Amino acid sequence: MRLLLRSTFLVGLxxxxxxxxxxxxxxxxxxxxxxxxxxxEGFAIYQRIKDKKFFLNWISCDEAQFGxxxxxxxxxxxxxAEIDAFPLLGGGQLKRPHEVSAFFAPSLxxxxxxxxxxxxxxxxxxxxxxxxxxxxxxxxxxAYTHDLxxxxxxxxxxxxxEGGDEVDHRDGLxxxxxxxxxxxxxxxxxxxxTWDGLREPHVAKTVAELWGRAEKVMASSxxxxxxxxxxxxxxxQLCQRGPQAALHRIIHRAPVCPAACLKPTPVAAREGxxxxxxxxxxxxxxxxxxxxxxxxxxxxxxxxxxRQ
Length: 308
Ligand SMILES: [Zn+2]
Known about the structure:
This protein is mainly α. It has one domain. It is built from 14 helices and 4 strands. The chain has a two-stranded parallel sheet. A hairpin with a 5-residue loop joins strand 2 and strand 3. Helix 8 packs parallel to helix 11 and helix 9 packs across helix 10. It is globular. Zinc ion binds next to helix 5 and helix 8.
């Protein structure tokens, strides 16, 4: 099993990958066909991105879903930077609220989380744009929403002979939802300028729209076994009273805790799970849309030894 981390790393961490496996056996036409047939929202991202090669380069022929959730995720970042708006699941877009870049740095919340690769990649200072700029935390929340949605619908549409999927698709969105929720909580508790800013109508609407979609996609994934390894730790955190109360005051409704995702995974579904590696990916900087080379995919492999 591989755990995928997709992030907006700073330019300069770039390395190469993503092309070789697709080139070895060209599964790309079949992958796009599969996307079109089974994952209309993911296919909409493929249709929308002007640089088809960028999308296709993320396809990985040796992954169960051809790496399509990753391709959709990274392409969402690409489109977001290009149009200066978040492309929404289900269609439409929201102009990026640049005022949130003046909010406190998301890295200040890192200590609230047990250390793991998601925290290191997205919240530790110097790792990714999202650690210093809340705008990129929202960018990741949206990208992971598209990502998990693609994974869910592809999983549900696969034929029995395709077998199970062994990628931790749910972990990323669970992590980003927790990061946003605990960010809101800290703002409410001790960051008055950010707290006021989060409740400004344009910002609040953006958070509400992105959060609502994340919530629905997360809930839709809960019945799928083998879809998460670290998801429950994050979900428990985001379901705590403090983050829920803060979010409630921003989105003007009670957030929905994806409680079904907290049910124990059936024993049979856990058997044979070996976590073989991690794949941090991606890099987006403002105004870098025209330069796909600034997106990067770093690969680090090593066994996860624990289930948190
Ligand atoms: Zn990302």
